[in-house]
Amino acid sequence: MTERGAAHHDQPPTDKVQVWEAAMSALSAEAAEIKAGGGWRRGPRTVLQAVGLEQSELKLVKLLGWLLSPDGHHGLGSSVVAALLNRLDIPYVASDEVEVSLEESCFDPTDSTVTRADLVLRSGKTCVLIEAKVWADEQPEQCDRLGRLWRHEHPALVFLTPWGDLPKTAVCSDDSWTAMSWGDIAEIIIEATSVSNQGQNHSQAPGVWDYVRTLQLFQGEQRSLETMSADGATCFYARHWKKIDEWVALREEVLTSINVALKDAFDRNRTLVAPGAEHGMDDSASTSYPTFELYRPAWRRFPISIALQWQPQQRTGNPWPYIGIRAYQGWARDERLMHLREALKPNLGRLNWLEYKRGDAFLCWKHIEPTDGDLYRLGELCRTELQQGWSELADPIDQFFADAPSQSGG
């Protein structure tokens, strides 16, 4: 490092950096308070979304069938049936027996095919047939076939979609269909819970409200700001976006500085105190992962190396370089390399190269982060870590290969 560089490095923090650090501390405290109160939320908003069912037509219909069954453990009794019939202007009789049928089939003698109705609700002499859609298109003549095959029950025909569209395949039965949205279903259930709560001590199952919320968020007719209300984390960003964006912009500068520091450290002098090691460096413009590696020719049989790697274009995550045992493409899951990793565990523990993810190109690794983010020492730290890694691992790797079977393969 030149005297000029050293002088720059020893300068006290600027006023701007001090202001930034004070602001970061204040914002960190504010964020921690929001998190402690449960207002800082990320990820899925409902259980159904968490398990990937928020747009599953089959599962959403099955849950609707559950809510329409008066004896279900949802705790709503027949109030959902009553609210649905009320929406369709059909009288509800509390003494009528209710039956719910899912995926009900009917044979069509005209062409020897079978047609299925998503949901059929029968309450006394009343019949409601629901054909539901989320993403699927209508099948040829689907709604006309449904109307014709269930005609003997004089059903109320409901076409249920995210936006309340009318069916396109109801050419002969177009006047018989009622368009309804999944948002309408959510409103019907909310109405039913209100009625059910009057004068009763029963409580609804938590799944009822998770289903309602899922329909409002992902299948509602109007996905309003109220429905998609911002949580504490979103509001936090809205309040402080200018300062946060200013800090985020620093990431690109940091990644550029890391890239320059490491290329300078290894391009200038690739010789390390690593007896018997071959050196390799891939820092071409086409690579997204510049890599400096140490290896012995015998290791190419598997092949592996002790490698340092970094990601100049990484948009998120840990920006610092990482060091470890690198397996070449197609070898990361090789059983013999898994055995190698197990055999080296004591050595890796001494190096603290303990991060691991099965199938990753690195059999083990650790990030190299200088104290206080000191980029001036990063190259030196990486060279030292490589030398320590070589000293600790080279001979045990040689011994493992000497004892391993001679066959190779990826």
Please explain how this structure is put together:
Helix 5 (79-87) packs across helix 7 and helix 7 packs antiparallel against helix 8 (206-218). The chain is α+β, with helices and mostly antiparallel strands and 410 residues long. Helix content is 41%, strand content 17%. The strands form 2 sheets. A 5-stranded mixed beta sheet has the order 1-2-3-4-5. It has a 5-stranded antiparallel beta sheet with strand order 6-7-8-9-10. The two termini are 44 Å apart. The model is unreliable at 1-11 and 221-227 (pLDDT under 50). The chain is elongated. The chain has 13 helices and 10 strands.
Short description:
The protein is α+β, with helices and mostly antiparallel strands and 410 residues long. It contains 13 helices and 10 strands.
Record field, number of beta strands:
10
What is the terminal-to-terminal distance? 44 Å
Query: What is the helix fraction of residues, given as a range?
Result: 40-55%
Q: Using only CA atoms, what is the Rg?
A: 33 Å
Number of H- or I-type helical stretches = 13
Low-confidence stretches: 1-11, 221-227
* Largest beta-sheet characterization: 5 strands, mixed
Order of helices and strands: HHHHHEEEHEEHHHHEEEEHHEH
Structural class: alpha+beta
Q: How much strand content do the residues show? A: 15-25%
Determine the mean pLDDT: 86
**Widest sheet: strand order?**
1-2-3-4-5
The global form is elongated
